[in-house]
Design goal:
Length: 305
């Protein structure tokens, strides 16, 4: 198999894993508090990934002056971003979360244009307008559909949308670190940052609800293992490796698999239904992403969960 084909398969696999992750999060958050789940996920992932970090350190050590920057990026890209994701998924549906997060390439492109002065053309503006129209339908569904009004869904949609913008800021601000160090080295440091910063929040959750560990079943433990080994370690590895060997525009196409995978899994395993607002909103977002896909060739990270 040619390297480019293998890289594309790696990107597709990572997109499918992250799509399924949203559904698993929706289930596991019924048993494990969000910050406790984040602490467990990154503590265990750090144990797995630390040997690779130590190996990379012997070849290309991290400069001490960059450690505060990496810690700050960890606060944005891991602690703040995933706090919003976990809380958002807890309050809204997995399908809504997946479609809203599919806007990630658009927000990263917008942030690059605003902060880095990267040029974008008319396709981007047209596609953004179409995609944002779809997001508005999904985001505001609890208000538009009076029979099904849910303030929790509205809050969850808002938190997921906020996480998308936070992810865009993280991508732009951390760009220099990913150029300076191996992406896996940066990812390992971010995981360690997540472990440290989520620890006090997890402790506070345990103080308020010390009985939650007693409700853990084998099913929940297996889901946690999936988050650690597949969503955190394997998917990040595949994604960062795949980006080395394919064009950014090609990599961007795999983002379309995120909502498709999540929606399919949510309907099958969670019994979620597809409403009229959601269907039309999804069509508009996918159409918008297709239009904007031709506007730029700069590096665009997908939304990670």
């Amino acid at each position: 198999m040619r390297t480019s084909h293998a890289a594309l398969m790696a990107l597709i696999t990572s997109a499918v894993i992250w799509g399924i992750t949203t559904v698993i999060l929706k289930d596991i958050l019924n048993y494990i508090p969000p910050f406790s789940l984040a602490f467990l996920r990154f503590s265990l992932a750090s144990l797995v990934i630390s040997p690779i970090l130590l190996y990379n350190e012997t070849r290309h050590p991290i400069q001490s002056k960059d450690l505060p920057k990496l810690f700050f990026f960890g606060l944005i890209g891991i602690t703040l971003h995933l706090s919003l994701v976990f809380l958002g998924v807890k309050y809204t549906t997995a399908t809504n979360a997946a479609v809203i997060t599919s806007l990630s390439p658009l927000t990263v492109a917008a942030a690059a244009a605003f902060f880095l002065r990267e040029k974008i053309n008319r396709n981007y503006y047209l596609g953004s307008l179409v995609a944002l129209s779809g997001t508005t339908l999904i985001f505001a569904e609890p208000l538009l559909n009076n029979e099904n009004f849910s303030s929790e869904h509205l809050l969850g949609n808002f938190l997921i949308l906020a996480s998308v913008f936070v992810w865009a800021v993280f991508n732009i601000s951390s760009k220099e670190m990913f150029k300076k160090y191996h992406p896996f080295t940066v990812t390992a440091v971010l995981f360690l940052t997540g472990m440290v910063t989520f620890a006090p929040l997890a402790f506070l959750e345990y103080q308020s609800n010390p009985t939650w560990p007693t409700y853990l079943s084998l099913k929940i433990l297996l889901e946690l293992l999936f988050l650690v080994l597949f969503s955190s370690v394997l998917a990040y590895l595949l994604y960062e490796w795949g980006l080395k060997y394919v064009k950014a525009s090609t990599a961007g196409l795999t983002n379309y698999l995120l909502p498709v995978t999540t929606v399919t899994a949510a309907v099958i395993f969670l019994g979620e239904t597809l409403t009229l607002f959601f269907t039309f909103g999804s069509i508009l977002i996918i159409l918008g992403l297709i239009i904007t896909n031709h506007h730029s060739s700069h590096h665009r990270h997908s939304h990670k969960t």
